[in-house]
Write a structure and sequence with these properties.
Elements lengths: L1 H16 L12 E9 L4 E11 L6 E7 L19 H4 L8 E9 L2 E2 L2 E4 L5 E10 L4 E11 L7 E3 L4 E3 L5 E2 L2 E2 L3 E2 L16 E10 L3 E4 L2 E8 L2 E11 L4 E4 L3 E7 L2 E7 L5 H18 L7 E7 L5 E4 L2 E5 L5 H13 L15 H18 L7 H23 L16 H23 L1 H15 L6 H12 L4 H9 L6
Parallel strand pairs: 1-14, 20-21, 21-23
Antiparallel strand pairs: 1-2, 2-8, 3-7, 3-11, 4-5, 4-8, 6-7, 9-10, 10-18, 12-13, 14-17, 15-18, 16-17, 19-20, 22-23
Helix pairs in contact: 3-4, 4-5, 5-6, 5-7, 6-7, 7-8, 8-9
The structure holds zinc ion (ZN).
Length: 488
């Protein structure tokens, strides 16, 4: 009886709750971002129109959005960089930034909103009416981002300006758990989002070169400013980079245009070749890259690189040809593990980082011309991991080697790196030795196919690997993830 009443109410409420998004059958949310960057004030002003689709099995009275730029505040509890990395991160002394929410509306009506979370990291918006499963609601958020002078995902450096994780992005809702509102962390990439469609318009001073996620539709200049329109379908985030210093070169591989933007890399042609070779390798080994463009972008970044859909940031601190290549291959592997197949990078970093790092080694196993011997890479990972365990045990008396921890549960950055990347490589390599190359590759391909554009939980990943290989793998993964396995 109750169910019948519920269905009746749903039917009655349906026309009232479908506020302004047009298509109510679409499965993906859509972000329309209208942005203007002022380089004198270092402020990005934005209007975000989001058509949010409730793909969950429950109804919402509020929607929650991450406010990642607030991690760059002076009084932030969860700082974006570890104390040990401060000198590399701040080129001109410590600097701060944040995000301000000026208004939130729906169909011109002002909505109540609140900045919540343990570190001012979440925007909570009260919806005009309850949003039931499969329904959508249109919300307009007016915001301003003040950039810090920092070599990081978000901020301006001496050579380039990075706009990563800059806009309010919807928190993922997990059935039985609620909205995932994890804060920032100086360890790893503390992000988790749903695949969505994007339409973006960015206005910026015309002396800058603009590079972004998605595909550029048009660009025009007026009064010293350039306005670029971008469309990105089925991507889980949107990022852009500006620089006055870019040179660029491009190549096409498997109908994908690979562009390299650089200013410091003296080996730009070999870097571009590594990018093309890795796109071709992962395309063939894991499954097709489903987008037309991939931008490889050298920029001010404290070290290594960072992945975004259709765009990878490569740090200008890379100091050798082989370092540029390694970072490029790793970040491009993330287009498959993070970009197309997503996961909660805060609670299960091993899932994308471990697999990405191992995929990087598989690239070198195939491409011997890069002079990185696969067996040497594995034994180097083994030795590095063993040394980490020895040193930590001798200093602290014990060491936590579990991999299934959220980013805030790793005591130090080295602990995070060794348990996530290095041990991740050893775990996936042991798995391949156990099930054999053919079944392992089949498992990668099936995991990619099954979870394309979705987020996979660790249990879903393990189950997918079990189905593909025909082996029971729960105990295997559990022993590695819990720290039970000892590497001798
Ligand atoms: Zn990575």
């Amino acid at each position: 009886m109750r169910k019948v009443i519920f269905v009746f109410l749903m039917m009655f409420l349906l026309p009232l709750t479908l506020v302004g998004c047009g298509e109510t059958t679409q499965a993906l949310s859509e972000y329309n971002l209208n942005l203007e960057y002022n380089d004198e004030t270092k402020v990005l002003s934005g209007v975000e129109d989001i058509c949010y689709v409730n793909n969950s099995d429950t109804s919402f009275k509020n929607l929650l959005f991450h406010l990642y730029p607030n991690a760059f505040r002076e009084d932030a509890k969860n700082r974006p960089v570890a104390v040990a990395s401060k000198d590399k991160a701040f080129p001109n002394g410590e600097s701060y930034g944040d995000i301000s929410i000026n208004s939130v509306k729906s169909e011109a009506a002002e909505l109540q909103f609140e900045i919540i979370g343990e570190d001012k990291n979440v925007l909570s918006v009260t919806l005009p009416t309850e949003l039931f499963p499969d329904e959508s609601v249109s919300i307009q958020i007016n915001f301003e981002v003040k950039l810090a002078n920092i070599n990081h995902r978000l901020g301006y450096g001496n050579n380039a300006i990075n706009f990563g994780n800059f806009y309010p992005i919807a928190c993922v809702y997990e059935s039985g758990k609620g909205f995932m509102t994890e804060p920032y962390s100086s360890n790893g990439d503390p992000f988790y989002s749903e695949t969505s469609n994007y339409k973006v318009k960015v206005t910026y001073p015309e002396e800058f070169t603009f590079v972004s996620s998605g595909d550029v539709i048009s660009s025009s200049n007026q009064d010293g400013k350039c306005t670029t329109h971008i469309k990105g379908n089925k991507i889980r985030d949107f990022c852009f980079v500006l620089s006055k210093k870019y040179k660029s070169s491009s190549k096409e591989v498997k109908n994908i245009k690979v562009n390299y933007f650089y200013y410091n890399d003296a080996s730009s042609e070999t870097s571009l070749q590594a990018a093309c070779d890795s796109v071709a390798f992962f395309n063939e080994t894991i499954g097709e890259y489903p987008y037309k463009t991939l931008n490889v972008v050298e920029t001010n970044f404290l070290n290594g690189g960072m992945e975004y859909p259709n765009l990878v940031m490569i740090s200008d601190t890379c100091s050798s040809v082989s370092e540029y290549q390694y970072v490029i291959v790793h970040e491009i592997a993330h287009q498959w593990w993070y970009g197309v197949v997503g996961n909660n990078e805060y609670s299960s970093a091993w899932q994308d980082e471990g697999l990405t790092e191992y995929s990087t080694m598989l690239f070198y196993e195939k491409h011997t011309e890069y002079n990185e011997n696969f067996d040497d890479l594995i034994s180097s990972a083994t030795n590095t991991y063993k040394r980490f365990v020895e040193v930590y045990t001798s200093v602290s008396g014990s060491v936590d080697t579990s991999m299934a921890r959220s980013l805030d549960e790793f005591a130090t950055e080295p602990e995070y790196v060794h348990c996530t990347y290095t041990k991740g490589v050893l775990m996936f390599n042991t798995l391949r030795e156990m099930v054999g190359q053919r079944k392992f590759t089949k498992a990668l391909r099936e995991y990619y196919r099954r979870y394309s554009y979705k987020n996979a939980s660790p249990a879903e990943m393990i189950s997918s690997f079990e189905n593909s290989t025909g082996y029971r793998l729960e105990g295997f993964f559990e022993s590695w993830l819990s720290g039970e396995v000892k590497i001798l």
